[in-house]
Amino acid sequence: SSKPSTGGEATCKIVAAEHLHADGRVQVEWSSGDRSEYPWVWLRDNCQCPQCFHPVSLSRTFKLKELDLKLKPTNTLIEDGELRVSWSDGHESRHGSSWLQERAFEKQPRAKRTLVHRVPRQYWEASLPSVDWTRLLQEDAMLLQWLLLVEQYGLVLVHGVPKHSGCVKLLAERVAFIKRTHYGRDFSVIAKPNPSNVSYSNNALALHLDLPYYFYKPGVQLIHFVHQYEGEGGDSLVSDALQVAEHMRQHVPHLFHLLTTVPVDWVDHATEDDREYFKTLKMPILCLEEDRQTIWRVNFSQPQRDSFFSECPLDKVCQWYEALKTFHDLLYDPRFCRTFKMESGSLMTLDNLRVTHGRVGYPDGGEVKRHVEGCYIDWDEMLSRRRVLQRRLLHQTEQ
Amino acid sequence: SSKPSTGGEATCKIVAAEHLHADGRVQVEWSSGDRSEYPWVWLRDNCQCPQCFHPVSLSRTFKLKELDLKLKPTNTLIEDGELRVSWSDGHESRHGSSWLQERAFEKQPRAKRTLVHRVPRQYWEASLPSVDWTRLLQEDAMLLQWLLLVEQYGLVLVHGVPKHSGCVKLLAERVAFIKRTHYGRDFSVIAKPNPSNVSYSNNALALHLDLPYYFYKPGVQLIHFVHQYEGEGGDSLVSDALQVAEHMRQHVPHLFHLLTTVPVDWVDHATEDDREYFKTLKMPILCLEEDRQTIWRVNFSQPQRDSFFSECPLDKVCQWYEALKTFHDLLYDPRFCRTFKMESGSLMTLDNLRVTHGRVGYPDGGEVKRHVEGCYIDWDEMLSRRRVLQRRLLHQTEQ
Fold first, then answer.
1. What distance in Å separates the CA atoms of residue A285 and residue A355, rounded to the nearest whole number?
2. For the range A20-26, what are the long-range contacts, defined as Cβ-Cβ under 8 Å and sequence gap of 24 or more?
3. What is the predicted pLDDT for the residue at B398?
């Protein structure tokens, strides 16, 4: 997977270079006639020669303590499509045309790189995305498609899954590995008496996202319907909290603002394998990125919202509840909520930072058989796997 | 660990209650003469009766769809130190004095609750915190002390550790469980030829924090010196990036600002157990909480800073490098950096969101023996364990 540090197939070549001494940059002219500027200090820091960059680990070995902020070019050459600069610190750096082009400080190459980081999210269409289990496990192209669909839509159904235990683990390990929580690695949800968690019952489950009290809340949830309840009940509900939040931003901005700014105390007291856990975390319902625009995480779970509400000013409590209730009601609005019954041998993939899920109750009784198995995978591993497959299958050579 | 939902030992009792209809709140008067106000909607939402609150899972079962934002009190009683309110929705809620006191919307009870969430951080004193391995493993009080020290100082040394493999796993499982990364669960650092990661060599390692390209970057690192190199070299360096950052905030605020606002591309290309990983993440060197004041995470690693610098405006690059270099130089400043040689049979605990670590190089050669073992634990699990132990050992009854 390693590529030569310089050279490569550039769509256009460097034809000239001129130093802008006042700005401390070199201006490169491309065969297309376009120009790009690169700061000297950045070029030196990112010299790709084997002394400065380790070609196996693909990482910088040039030391920060050796970086001279006041360095200047002493000689500049263009040879074999490479920019070769000799510096006042005695080093000569070489940078190929394609390497420089990919890293240009202009809008277009940056937008391309952004897609390597994250693929844009989309709202659901009439039919929900779905893939076939056997192809998902056997074909890398289908694995890539599933990864992209989860990233884009936050919900992907998988059909044709075997009706036995172990499938969620198999799929998680096809991606990377399971995200362990205090509830274990993979877990079964079967009605059991005196449950320590409300999920472990046959009751209806209101729309929610899992484990809001985890700072490192699991990113993606796999839910395998090993055996679905065959009578009436046990249906699934899903609703896109991102779309609902954007709806609120547009129509009730003052309530949206409260959901993005008032921290909520989330809590869980659990005992698993004789060990107690006491998780608690303060975080708003809707978490915005540093741009204060993009929603990156939604927290919503009625049972795990603490009675402590320790950062909400007293005079905002009533309106915050109005915002909460509005959000709740919209999640159930038919414009956003889908209800369907998963069949035995099917699997649901959910973005646990975005898509709420719930369950219609089903009757209690000795004859009831419903077995659901689940586990989590973190987004770090999902995105990593998607990038590796894109590079391999789509011949994207970028590192 | 469950406690009665109402009643309990209150330091003072409710003596009177009066409704403030314009604000939708009840004002409670305590035996001390102080008063506290509670919004009606919050009281109803947090009714602690067995219909509304599940006493085993300690979680709310009252449904949001049943919450009437316009509910009003129809009757109010104080009996046995309990506030009993009948509501216009037909329900009667009961709340005990101590339960209400702990959740009062005033500053003092809230400050107390904040300590349950996080304990304040402190800078290092002349001698670094250390504990004894045997006591750490055998005494819960010592485990609690170690957990608190890691939370406060971000660095704790452990002495008297056995000189064999498996100790980091043992300690991680005494807390909860290991945080797995693409480098595995626990890992050995021994010099090996042609390393895929610069750590796996005998070279000096500059001060850094691990895995900056992980969105869910491991919270705490355990490093066990199973066998230290006995000649000259192999010393450890540690430096508190939080203290250095605060120093910069005070003395060079314009550079501090750049480190907190300019996202850096972090990257790792790894192959472990025949599987490729391609992690990349944009995040500043210094990450601020929503208050734009508190530093919650530091990212710093020269090898894993990408040559893509895809969100830095061209005209800020040079000054950003000045900020980076200043930060780097201060990390090595004797006011902040400590150097010492860990002995065989000792262990270092590091807050991987805060404290940088490095290594002095040691000679290569067939006779060299140095064996270090490491693993990670997430802060979610560290804090959970601390809270459970505080509740058990310090008789803190709060949920």
1. 13
2. A21/A72, A23/B315, A24/B318, A25/B314, A26/A73, A26/A76, A26/A83, A26/A85
3. 56
pLDDT tens digits along A221-268: 999 999 998 888 999 999 999 999 999 999 999 999 999 999 999 999
Q: Is A225 in the same domain as A323?
A: yes
Residue of chain A whose Cα is closest to the Cα of B215 = A380
Rounded Cα distance between B19 and B205, Å, is 65
Nearest chain A residue to B292 by CA: give it: A290
Residue A125 included in any domain: no
Question: Which of B39, B61, B310 lies closest to A318 in CB terms?
Answer: B39
Whether A88 is in a domain gets the answer yes
* ipTM over the 0.90 cut-off: yes
Q: Is the pLDDT of residue B380 over 50?
A: yes
Do A78 and A188 belong to one domain?
Answer: no
Among B44, B46, B58, most A C-beta atoms within 10 A, so best to mutate, is: B58
Provide the shortest C-alpha distance from residue A396 to chain B (in Å): 13
pLDDT in tens, B123-153: 999 999 999 999 999 999 999 999 999 999 9
Q: Which residue has the tokens 């362990």?
A: A180
| A28, β-bridge pairs | A17, A36
- Indicate the range of A296-305, A388-397, B350-359 predicted with least confidence: A388-397
> Contact, B298 vs B209, CB < 8 A?
yes
Q: Are B378 and B218 in contact (CB under 8 A)?
A: yes
pLDDT in tens, B89-122: 999 999 999 999 999 999 999 999 999 999 999 9
- Give the SS3 label for residue A198: coil
Please tell me whether residues A306 and A212 are part of one structural domain.
yes
CATH number of residue A240's parent domain: 3.60.130.10
Q: A387 is written with which tokens? A: 């990038």
In a domain, B223, yes or no: yes
d(CA A278, CA A267): 7
Domain hosting A260: range is 130-390
Q: Are residues A171 and A78 in the same domain?
A: no
CB contact under 8 Å between A56 and B267, yes or no, is no
A72 and A162 fall within a common domain: no
Decide if A180 is inside a domain: yes
Instruction: Give the pLDDT confidence score for residue A190 in this predicted structure.
Output: 77
Same domain, A225 and A366: yes
In chain A, which residues have their Cβ closer than 8 Å to the Cβ of B151? none
> Both B222 and B292 in a single domain?
yes
In A, minimum Cα distance to B386 occurs at A278
